[in-house]
Design a protein that fits this description.
Blueprint: E1 6-12, H1 25-34, E2 39-45, H2 49-52, E3 57-59, E4 62-71, E5 78-82, H3 94-103, E6 107-110, E7 141-146, H4 147-154, H5 160-165, H6 176-188, E8 192-196, E9 202-206, E10 210-214, H7 217-220, E11 224-230, H8 240-253, E12 256-260, E13 270-274, E14 279-281, E15 285-286, E16 292-307, E17 310-323, E18 327-335, E19 338-343, E20 346-348
Parallel strand pairs: 1-2, 2-4, 7-8, 15-20
Antiparallel strand pairs: 1-11, 3-4, 4-5, 5-6, 9-10, 11-12, 12-19, 13-14, 13-16, 16-17, 16-18, 18-19, 18-20
């Protein structure tokens, strides 16, 4: 019983010249429109200037929400906050930020939580900024796949020039260690995963002749995307506040999935559980009499169905229809031996 949704595809975590990015908001917006995005969540470091200047709202068919990336006072934990009209106090630690964002009803996202790399081999000047502890019940959403962190983790002095020229070609998979933590966490509480670009569009001088942006917006917006499955259409007749609330609630609910556009357009992917009468969507939990996991994949891919952190079925397919037992399920789809689609979890409970 596949339910009809309005699907919205967008990118999360983008920086402008108002922090450490290389482009203006008009440049960012133009690139997002050119990449065919439906929405964009921008998050400069420690500033809401882009929001204060009125950039939140519709830009033709693109909806832009401007939040900010919070650096705690020790610069050890980065937390994205969307839906705030005023910045939080600068002297908060990360626990205070997490709690304050939730109290204000804003969307909070733990950024690059398991970021890691060998500082002796990686690009000089960019140390990792992972989270020391994610076991706060107030953390409801985390970045499962951060494109910029992924690039830094796989880029060394040997391959940096190739990776600068071909910034999407290297992408493989989200961190297996992070995915394992994510599966384990969802056995106890719901933690939603999103994909992000963390794009900066950094500009460099080439032979002192001209300036070029590496990790340009138009390239990075065609990499890691987060798809939202909405009950209703987002229209320009609705206030910005209501549209933001709808987007944030969809993300919190987990009715989303992550895709790597470099491997193909994933629009049309669906993953759900049913028993003929009741249905559980991604992010939902409940009991089913005779549960069946179903999926539709827009193109043939190598599917890995995961229950409680363990792969229970794998193989190439365009659909899945499988009777299952209670447990916590998610689906990965690979193309060309690279990660393509990652669902959020469905939790099928034991009947009492």
């Amino acid at each position: 019983m596949m339910r009809e949704f309005k699907e919205y595809t967008g990118c999360i975590h983008a920086h402008s010249i108002y922090s450490d990015g290389g482009g203006t908001f008009p440049e960012m917006i133009k690139a997002a429109q050119g990449a065919g995005l439906d929405y964009l969540l921008a998050s400069d470091h420690m500033t809401l200037r882009g929001r204060d200047e009125g950039n939140t709202g519709w830009h033709n068919d693109l909806f832009l929400s401007v939040g900010y990336e919070i650096n705690d006072k020790d610069d050890q934990h980065h937390y994205l906050a969307f839906g705030l009209d005023e910045m939080l106090p600068y002297d908060y630690n990360h626990e205070h930020y997490i709690q304050a964002v939730k109290v204000k009803g804003a969307l909070g996202v733990a950024a690059h939580p398991f970021e890691e790399r060998d500082v002796n081999k990686s690009v000089v000047g960019f140390p990792p900024i992972p989270w020391g502890n994610l076991d706060y019940p107030e953390i409801e959403v985390i970045e499962i796949w951060n494109m910029m962190s992924h690039w830094l983790e796989l880029t060394t002095g040997w391959n940096k020039y190739w990776n600068v020229v071909h910034p999407r070609s290297f992408s493989t998979f989200p961190s297996r260690r992070l995915l394992a933590w994510w599966d384990q966490a969802n056995l106890d509480r719901k933690v939603v995963g999103i994909g992000s670009v963390d794009v900066h569009a950094i500009k460099i001088r080439i032979l002192k002749l001209y300036t070029k942006a590496i990790f340009d917006y138009k390239i990075m917006f065609k990499s890691i995307r987060t798809h939202l499955l909405c009950d209703t259409e987002l229209t320009k007749n609705t206030s910005n506040t209501e549209i933001e609330s709808t987007i944030f609630n969809l993300i919190r609910s987990g009715r989303t999935f992550i895709s790597n556009f470099r491997r193909g357009d994933a629009r049309g992917f669906r993953f759900w559980a049913e028993d003929g009468g009741s249905v559980l969507q991604m992010g939902e939990s409940g009991t089913l009499n005779k549960p069946v996991i179903k999926a539709i994949i827009p193109e043939r891919g190598h599917c890995r169905l995961i229950r409680n952190g363990e792969v229970i079925q794998k193989g190439k397919a365009t659909s899945i229809d499988m009777a299952v037992e209670p447990g916590v399920y998610r689906l990965e789809v690979l193309k060309g031996k690279r990660g393509w689609i990652y669902s959020n979890h469905i939790k099928i409970l034991e009947k009492k």
